[in-house]
Amino acid sequence: MCNVTDRNAMKQLKNTPISILDLSPIQQNGTPADAFHRTLDLAQHAEQWGYNRYWLAEHHGMPAIASAATAVVIGYVAAGTKTIRVGSGGIMLPNHAPLVIAEQFGTLESIYPGRIDLGIGRAPGSSQLTARALRRTLHQEGETFPEQLAELRAYLKPRNTTARVRAIPGEGLDIPIWLLGSSDFSAQLAGHLGLPFAFAGQFAPAYMQAALTLYRQCFQPSETLAKPYAMVGVNVFAADSEREAQRLSTSHKQMHVNLVRGTPGQMPPPVESMDGLWSPMEQASVQESLRASIIGDPGMVKQQLQSFIDETQADELIINSMMYDHAARLRSYEIVAQARD
Predict the structure, then answer these.
(1) Is 115 helix (H, G, I), strand (E, B) or coil?
(2) CA atoms within 13 A on the CB side of 126
(3) What percentage of the chain has pLDDT greater than the value 90?
(4) Residues 6 or more apart in contact with residue 108 via CB below 8 angstroms
(5) pTM higher than 0.70 for the full model?
(6) Exposed, middle or buried, 80 (CB in 10 Å: 0-12/13-18/19+)?
(7) For the chain, which residues make up each domain, given as ranges?
(8) Considering the domain 13-231+326-338 in this protein, what is its CATH number?
């Protein structure tokens, strides 16, 4: 049973770290190479604008997402930046042997010391068929996640000369491990283990408050953290006018509609209106998934970001801006950074 805890003192946007979640989106008629070049450019701008960390997400078999080989892309971004933390948002642990993840992130931390984060999730990040191709078996399901996590953490502990299996590089390195989630499972586990928790508010807003409350109530101090630390994901579509921000958000909405229909494709360009592009049921699905999203001009974005922090008491925000036009995407992230001034 978890304890009931009081809410933290009110937090201010200007004092709240902000980070970026990137899926390396592939534009319509574009290539993964194009997506990777845009990812690095965004990371370099984010570093200049004062963003805290830059995370890449693991998805497989998605025509619009290039970050499947997440550790490789993390290395590419870390090599092209200097100070910003780079990590996974996240690595889907059931898809991999824990030893492989320990070695991969041990390698990254050895090359870029003090800059690598390891965010871990338990979802497949793919279809069942793709999951089978990745794992060769589906016997490793979500219920084994705590055991896999314990194995991974054991590989990263200081050197144990009696261990028969060791992660080299990996052991003894200070690689922050985060648990990611969109429901209560990882929230409760992160709390019990005293680990930082990142909630996927960008696509699961309905469970956001319950998961954050559970995490804080279940939190037990550890050698990692003395008190809870929650980072919350949120979609932001910012532009110099509200009308333009609304237009830019339609690329993301079209992608969601395609997912609902089971016909995922590359990221389409924005449209002036979604009228005629979705059914009432599809519209309701998109609006529910994106109801915590922030869309607007600089003033609106600043106000809505503060309201989001008031609501969630987030210790950090991680921003997802899925936009077709790269210049517009850069401007959106710049507006978010300026909102903290």
Answers:
(1) coil
(2) 22
(3) 79
(4) 71, 74, 75, 78, 116
(5) yes
(6) middle
(7) 13-231+326-338
(8) 3.20.20.30
